[in-house]
Write a structure and sequence with these properties.
2 copies of one chain form a homodimer. Chain A is an alpha+beta fold and 368 residues long. Chain A has 6 helices and 25 strands. Chain A has an 8-stranded antiparallel sheet. Chain A has an 8-stranded antiparallel sheet with strand order 14-11-12-13-25-24-23-18. In chain A, a hairpin with a 4-residue loop joins strand 19 and strand 20. In chain A, helix 1 packs antiparallel against helix 2 and helix 3 packs antiparallel against helix 4. The longest helix of chain A is centred in the C-terminal third of the chain and has 15 residues. Chains A and B meet through helix 2, strand 9, helix 5 and strand 21 of A and helix 2, strand 9, helix 5 and strand 21 of B.
Chain lengths: 368, 368
């Protein structure tokens, strides 16, 4: 193998693929490596942790075709520190990669590609295909992922549920204490019911850059593929069934108001300072006559607090919430004003944008 | 006690003083607290961890004088989240602080000031006084502190040595493997030999802001005080004697060259990628005839590298260095071009600015 590639593009691609490789001390050393394949005017770089795989292709001057694997993080870090604006030459001989650029030269011990794991292939004929603008995908994933769980004993909750309902595609996530749902695509032709690991989606989000405008998503029975420009991310789906979450979303709430998001964040943070010693428990009390929502902490060893937000309220009521869940929710709502509703101490709290009805979050109250 | 203070200044001051208070679970709960004293049109805030103390004064409308202590981090975080541009009112009654601003209100359980530790007082008559521009102090501390040690078994090495020599004041630090020295004040009238804890100096550096131009430094037998605007930092000095470091600084070196700092950083990082598995060991080899300095790693399991820097060299030579020490040194040198010198494999490496002779770093070589 012998190729010449521009330094910047190589560095960018290696930075992305090397991220999912495992640490050097792993029991499967081959998973530390990136697979490099040079052919047809391009260099293709592949990495996998067996749950997901990343492939990046960049244009290359291929003097001699070939395939090899090399330690991904080492190679990525090395290339990142090569001279700016130089062309990088990679020559493979006897299992060693000689990488040179300007007055820099390195020899890296590679490993034959034969032992590199086979990546699963998506059957493009049978899979459901979606074409999404990058901005829309970023927004949707960012808004929904926050509600997913880290608890691996309930795998289905560690992912985002892509699901069709009445002809539209929804994304949903829940950790059992809160839930976020967004209507993602208005009309889809085929049914989809797939749980995509949140960890894989985080990787997809991290790899997006300004050069890409559209993402092609392909979902089959067992896996999903995101194709963005010259990059591809494949991930296994999570098996098992997602909770029937729609029945948990209240059709309406008794106490309803519109709040300034920024003010609500500030006041929640203030109460959270005092609530820390009480497991984060804060109280929201709506007074219809006075037209104020009072957010405060419960008295603890250190003290207590409350703040008033002036707003129009249809019915009085009181509910106790985890301050962190409320802050997480407020931080991903998009509009400057939000709808905040609840129905007494036991029913879920509902948070929405003031205008856009496509997104909803619910938070279960704490006992008080 | 009853006072009214502007929110922004109060938040800033509390943020600074609360930093040195210890965590809430400490064995000396009083050290969690900030001492608040209201008198003569100002609010004075004091915190200490018994090694150092911080005092901040801000102008206040004092309706009723008084003194109290309250949990510092809780109070700081709370005030930070109050409404912008509001005046904050603090009223103390029966050991409770009622803090209010706009529509926010909190009650914090305070503790009587009687049990708060006495701060030591510097005898201004006997102490040595220095007046330093903020920029100069920042630069000097930043350049010297990097060489100080974290190893508390040799306390003298965990500080910066303020010392007079031939009528000038020098700052020096060493961890036994490297050393940094800067001529700090050209002419001083009294002798100073004081080891100031690096941790205290970090705190002083962190608290500097754009509003301050000059720092007054007062040093006596046992302590140092930095006064910057309305803030004061006091710190105990470290006892014991600092190594007689001047004899370690080579008068001259055999192999000498001038290098572009940025290029040297890049090439050292590149070698460090490969050197990681070899304890960070990198080799610098100067070739007088070719006029190149070659910086490279030693061959390891993963590979090896080398990069050439073209420069004028007076004598050939070779030395092995810890890449992290070299990077640390290069990162704090100020000029774009640096002087790099050494004398074979066993003598210290010397790094200086190309022009400014007031600063020197030395690094002991590794065995090779």
């Amino acid at each position: 193998m012998e190729i010449i590639v521009p330094k910047d593009r190589l560095a960018k691609a290696l930075n992305i693929v090397s991220r999912i490789t495992v640490s050097l001390k792993s029991a499967f050393p081959m998973l530390n490596n990136v697979l490099l394949r040079a052919e047809d005017g391009k260099l293709s770089m592949t990495a996998t942790d067996m749950e997901m795989a990343t492939v990046c292709n960049i244009g290359a001057k291929v003097v001699k075709k070939g395939v090899i694997t090399a330690p991904a993080k080492l190679l990525a870090e090395m290339v990142a520190n090569l001279s700016k604006d130089e062309e990088v030459k990679i020559v493979v001989k006897d299992g060693k990669l000689t990488v040179s650029a300007g007055k820099d030269r390195a020899v890296i011990n590679g490993a034959a590609a034969d032992d590199y794991p086979e990546l699963p292939v998506i059957d493009e004929e049978k899979a459901v295909k979606l074409q999404i603008g990058v901005d829309g995908l970023k927004r949707a994933l960012g808004s929904v992922m926050i509600a997913s769980s880290n608890d691996t004993t309930r795998p289905a909750l560690t992912g985002v549920y892509f699901n069709t309902f009445e002809g539209s595609l929804y994304l949903a996530a829940t950790d059992g204490y809160r839930l976020a749902e967004m209507k993602f695509v208005d009309k889809v032709e085929s049914e989809v019911f797939a749980i995509v690991p949140t960890s894989s989606l985080s990787e997809v989000l991290r790899s997006m850059n300004d050069e890409i405008e559209e993402v092609e998503i392909l979902i089959d029975e067992a896996q999903v593929r995101f194709r963005m420009g010259e990059m591809e991310f494949m991930s296994k789906l999570i098996g098992g069934s997602f909770p029937d979450y729609r029945q948990l979303i209240p059709k309406k709430t008794d106490t309803n108001m519109v709040l300034e998001r920024a003010e609500c964040v500030r006041v929640t943070k203030l109460a959270a300072v005092f609530a820390r010693e009480m497991g984060g428990s804060i109280v929201c009390e709506a007074d219809k006559e006075k037209g104020v929502l009072v957010i405060g902490s419960v008295a603890s060893e250190f003290g207590e607090n409350n703040s008033e937000i002036v707003t129009k309220i249809d019915n009085g009521g009181k509910v106790t919430l985890n301050s962190r869940f409320l802050l997480d929710a407020l931080n991903v709502v998009e509009e400057e004003r939000i709808r905040f509703g609840f129905s007494g101490k036991l029913s879920p709290v509902v948070i929405k944008n003031e205008k856009n009805e496509n997104y909803i979050q619910i938070i279960m109250p704490l006992k008080s």
